[in-house]
Amino acid sequence: MRVVEVSEPGGPDVLQVVQRPEPQPGEGEVVVAVEAAGVNPTDLAARQGMTVGDSARPPYVLGWDFAGTAVSVGPGAQLRPGRPVVGMVPWYAEHGRVGAYAERIAVPESWVLPRPDGLGAVEAATIPLNALTAAQLLDLLAPPPGADVLVTGASGAVGGYAVQLAAQAGHRVTAVAGTGDEEWVRGLGAAVVLGRDTDYTSIGTFGSVVDAVPVGEALFPAVAPGGTVLSTRPVTEAPAAAGITQRVMLVELDLPLLTRLVGEVAAGRLRTRVSSTFPLERAADAHRAAEEHGRRGKAVLEP
Ligand SMILES: NC(=O)c1ccc[n+]([C@@H]2O[C@H](COP(=O)([O-])OP(=O)(O)OC[C@H]3O[C@@H](n4cnc5c(N)ncnc54)[C@H](OP(=O)(O)O)[C@@H]3O)[C@@H](O)[C@H]2O)c1
Question: Which residue, of 30, 213, 217, 262, has the fewest CB within 10 Å?
Fold first, then answer.
């Protein structure tokens, strides 16, 4: 069966389709025929060899988010073959041992949930990593009821979910979005939408900030003294004198939470978007597309 392998870190052209042995389900595992694998910024970084800690050593297969159909299960696994599923590979924790850019993957059943009726594989494959990250950022941020919340990268996946979840929780969201994408972000529930050229010294201050780009240092003037900013990647630390609490959060696979978020998308209460799909052989083109600005939605591979 075919996978997209990184044999040597580098540009998009290092992504090559190779044959690997057919995966077999071990104890408590399920083999999923992957119909869609989301392309995320972390994949672009991992392709270039930038991984967290002592992570993957080549050759490795990229990809966190997948959706498809369970085809076989190992002893002790409950899922029935034939069941549509969606799931997430905790790729860093696994050191790149298994990745979603593949025709089939064997994964613990605890990484997978049944895919609700009516939720297509391509759409589903844009949910896990980014919706979980947004939900966990907001849990950690814990804004007080009815807070003014600032979200950067609101036209992207993490920021887009953060806007929706914060607005639905009753907060007043000010969103900073990519150029020309204000209408989409307003539709997610943002009260105020600003452009990416925002001058953070002139928009007032916020006690609760999700920095999903992350913008980092430049937005510190918009964080109130005593306020908290949570970032999706390491940024320059806020000066102690600013009195700002600043943290980087790393997503954790939480299947009950993911089940709820997937259900919300399936029910139309959370929105996601796909910019384009690519066959496995065109993984390099998918990465090139994902590296462009203003693409409005995720690139998705269809193995
Ligand atoms: N820590 C974790 O566990 C975790 C989990 C998931 C993601 N992440 C990280 O979170 C970041 C966002 O991921 P994502 O999947 O949401 O990416 P994405 O879908 O590419 O979204 C990023 C969005 O930010 C916009 N943007 C870029 N620069 C901006 C700026 N200066 N001001 C306002 N908006 C700006 C982009 O617009 P344009 O397209 O116009 O540039 C794009 O819409 C990435 O760095 C990713 O690696 C971390």
Answer: 217
Q: Domain limits at 44? A: 2-126+273-302
Q: Which residue has the tokens 């992570």?
A: 55
16 and 117 belong to one structural domain: yes
Q: How many CB atoms lie within 10 A of CB 169?
A: 14
* C-beta of residue 277 within 8 angstroms of C-beta of residue 301: yes
Q: What is the mean pLDDT of residues 177-181?
A: 89
Nearest CA to ligand 1 atom 22: 156
| Residue 118 binned pLDDT confidence (cut-offs 50, 70, 90) | very high
Domain total of the chain: 2
In this predicted model, what pLDDT tens digit does every residue of 38-53 receive, in sequence order?
A: 999 999 999 998 876 6
**Lining residues, ligand 1, CB within 6 Å:** 40-42, 129-130, 133, 152-153, 155-159, 176-179, 196, 212-213, 215, 232-233, 249-251, 293-295
Q: 166 near 197, Cβ under 8 Å?
A: no
Rounded to whole angstroms, how far apart are CA atoms 181 and 275? 13
